[in-house]
Fold this sequence. Notes:
- α2 (about 20-35) crosses α14, α16 (about 375-385) packs across α22 and α19 packs across α20 (about 505-515).
- This protein is about 30% helix and about 15% strand.
- A hairpin with a 2-residue loop joins β7 and β8 (about 255).
- It is globular, with a radius of gyration of 27 Å.
- The protein contains 23 helices and 28 strands.
- By secondary structure, it is an alpha/beta fold.
- Among the domains are: about 375-580, Glycoside hydrolase family 3 C-terminal domain (Rossmann fold, 3-Layer(aba) Sandwich); about 620-740, Immunoglobulin-like (Sandwich), CATH 2.60.40.10.
- The strands form seven sheets. A six-stranded mixed sheet has the order 11-16-15-14-12-13, sandwiched between helices.
- Alpha-D-glucopyranose (GLC) binds near residues 55, 203 and 491.
Amino acid sequence: xxxxxxxxxxxxxxxxxxGAVQAIEQDxxxxxxxxxxxxxxxxxxxxxxxxxxxTGPVIDYGELSPAxxxxxxxxxxxxxxxxxxxxxxxxxxxxxxHIPLLFAFDVIHGYRTIxxxxxxxxxxxxxxxxxxxxxxxxxxxxxxxxxxxxxxMVDIARDPRWGRVVEGAGEDPFLGAALAAAKxxxxxxxxxxxxxxxxxxxxxxxxxxxxxxxxxYNVADVSERTLREVYFPPFQxxxxxxxxxxxxxxxxxxxxxxxxNTALLSDVLRNQWRFxxxxxxxxxxxWELSQHGIADVPGDAARLAFxxxxxxxxxxxxxxxxxxxxVRNGLVPVAAVDDAVRRVLKAKQRLGLFADPYxxxxxxxxRASVLTPQHRALAREAAQQSIVxxxxxxxxxxxxxxxxxxxxxxxxxxxxxATIGPWSAxxxxxxxxxxxxxxxxxxxxxTEVVYLPDASPLSQKVQNLPAxxxxxxxxxxxxxxLGESADQSGEAHSRADLGLPGNQDVVLRALLDAGQPVxxxxxxxxPLVLSENVQRAPALLETWFLGTEMGSAxxxxxxxxVSPSGKLPITFARSVGQIxxxxxxxxxxxxxxxxxxxxxxYIDTPWSxxxxxxxxxxxxxxxxxxxxxxxDRIASTDTLTVQVSVTNTGQRAGDEIVQLxxxxxxxxxxxxxxxxxxxxxxxxxxxETRSVSFTLDAQDFALLDEHWLPVVEAGRFxxxxxxxxxxxxQAWFDVTDSRALSETGLSRPP
Length: 750
Ligand code: GLC
């Protein structure tokens, strides 16, 4: 410990002159590297998994053993001041070089205060909100000893059968990129040496959401163009925002597993994007290269993964078991091992762990930072903003708080675990406000709230229907809370049938047949295929899994304290047979037109979605003027201003997420019929009109040429501005010349 005390003294003394400190820090890393044995280096590239809830299958590693706690580089699944301090003491005091541990954990949408699942929060279309919830999560996690989160998950998903759609920001690269960057900045905060600075990881690189059949871990086979135009942008935005680590995905891409994909992990990530952070495998994914059939022994898997560009092996022990001999046999360059270890040590240095290995394990800070009233208030705000009103016939919502009685039906209404959804870190179900509690808290004291749990996503059994129908007949209003349980989406929880699981649809029919107004509150981790019964209901709220304050936020919307403003970040198909279905589709040579023959459509189902990307209603209404453009012809180096006047034409204030889409009408390659290129949330009082303007430039018009370089091509563009991705509110302009984006002086990340 003497060494670190001296170092801390030097660090503090010299902290006035940054350069000198950097020199000291650089020396520390190089000094350590010079002293480390090959095995010590390789143990720094191993990560020990000790999490109590498994995040993957149990694997037999044969005679291989994990690196011991006092030489392993990092630990997955340790949290809390007591545990992290104890493990850190072992590592620092019982090792030859006293190298501190990194503690990593999946802090995806909150640590103890749980915020809406990422797909829900994406419905708020609010980068500032995404920043604030990530910041709050980082404050809580770092106060509890966690240095590193495996978030944000930035996988674009256009197939809701895939269980992990819940963890990302939906189907659109532009929205996904904006939120990815905000999350990275949120986890970072003021950055080192602030103790609430947390390392962030963009995952899972790449095209994991393109799994065939929506089946998790399955093959993804996308074109190079789709890969670069759809799946890359959120990762590029995360890298540009300074993300500290990248985690490859389990899938293969065009025959090459991502965990042995040199072209993507080294050529693209390191050489093209200049990413200098860490790469860490997914759980056991190095070991599983043998399952892919490209490695016949774990040693081969270790060689392929490391040489492809994966610094750290998570949980499995192929690196520890085989890299030493691979280096000695010249199959893995020792210089590459040094580079990887250097990145690990630098991460520890950025966190200030060489100066003080225990600075993140502070009991007083943990007590003061976790589940605070401020964080609960933020959780409630985020939940309110994430709710999407899909239907509200005859303005049935909002409900008055002084009803004589109302009936709440559905086991999900009291399912506290469901409120926090998958990947809930240290969130506790009993911290949560359930939907039933939220309703009870909101209504007038003399309003009778009757509750029947009978509709369940987990049981096909239907009983008690007469009693349910009778209760519904007596109620002024019925609130049916339907959807999925917390573990019917998430990793390894793909579904082939996207209808309401269990007995819910049958119970819903009984409720509807009773004749009283039925409001459906959906709790789900993915777009569902909404049955005819669901579509019979006069009001429909999409509330996803909203976190610790879910019940309060749902009640805030149901009873009108807050007007809903969320917009769908992902398309809701009419049938699972339509999937994949997304707004930024190509026109084809025979574009789909309802009622026409010989077009790209179905003979048994309308081709269009039930609810499109960007759709969401409010308790008020809005109108849009035709877009006004600053010019109708511009050079590729010019900017274009698009203005639109938005009016609140209803009787109460509300927030509207104004969306701007662009279409390149004719280009050297086919282009989507529209692509999101701007969004802005505006608050308007009843009757108020506001001018909203967007500035577009070559970055927005560019496409990738055959060498995957961004270029602007001369030609006509259509700009759409409206309330969702189907808006026909449009204007046109021409770009007069073609040039490479690099020649326009623009180089901001996507
Ligand atoms: C899981 C997930 C990954 C997570 C990791 C550690 O398999 O794919 O997202 O970060 O294991 O829990």
